[in-house]
Amino acid sequence: MLRLPPFRYHRPATLAEAVGLLEEHGGDVMPVAGGTDLMPNMKHRLFTPGHLVALKGMPELKGVEVVGADSDPGMGYLRVGAAETLTSVASHGEVRRLYPALADAAGHVAGPQLRNMGTIGGNLCLDTRCTYYNQTEFWRKALGYCLKKDGTVCHVTGVGKKCVAAHSADTPPVLMTLDATAILVSAAGEREIPVRDFFVADGITNTRRAPGEIVAEIRIPMASASRRTAYEKLRARKSIDFPLLTVAVAAEVDDTGVVRSLGGVVTALGSRPRELSGWREIAVGHPLDEALVDALAERAHAQCHPLENLPADPEWRRAMVPVFVKRALRRIRSA
What single string gives the DSSP state of each residue in 92-159? Predict the structure, then answer.
């Protein structure tokens, strides 16, 4: 049986109290919301904090509401509290009406039990994953540990200079295509960072969130609600698994079917979500017909090169990139 390491559990009533506890306990504390990823990782001794600060009981981190759009429906933003569960986000009427791909992504995380506990803030901050990292301490010790935890060598690349553990969260690619921003709060104050700038190419720590910061809310511009969006996910078992590939696409298409703007993001192929380059140059000013869909899928395939850090053949995963890109683009075309 895998047991949790000892820790002290704090349940603050306010956000100010929570960030104060994070500052007080420094490097020996972690925030916990749903705990669906953190608890297994603690049992595997990937994290052993002496203190956990609970976030789900604070009203400042709850709620889904449209803010600042009273005078102009195209202005303002949808505020999503970071402690809202993935089930809540997936089923919320405003999310489903304005940003259906986000509801789709949230509804495809793991299984219903985990979605009932896991939060959208936790999904945004999800730790990277790797075949050689997400194992028991006994397993990792027998192998000699790895660059991400206690070791000096990356067993994927064999050179040990950079961790390539994969980003495996479902909602961030969609949030990127919607120009969403994250509001981070610490004892030093509040700051705002676009979700597309939230991640860095470092498998050990792949976000710009500082240790004492909490993601308090996510803001999605109302202007993004006019975009056609789609989300596709590849996984070994459709009901529960982490993604082997996700594709998020958003486009603005005029009444004649001509593309005005188009963007795509893939993830589970590297340590951060990747925006597909060159799509705008290929697509803008052209109808979203099958020829354009094929050209965009070919461009995506050329950019994506999965590594052997997830339990599936990387060449098969790469071959699935154009397949899932085409599915997403065809959904947009038929929207």
Answer: -HHHHHH-HHHHHHHTTSS-HHHHHH-BHHHHHTPPPB-TTTSS-HHHHHHHT-BTTBB-S--TTTSS
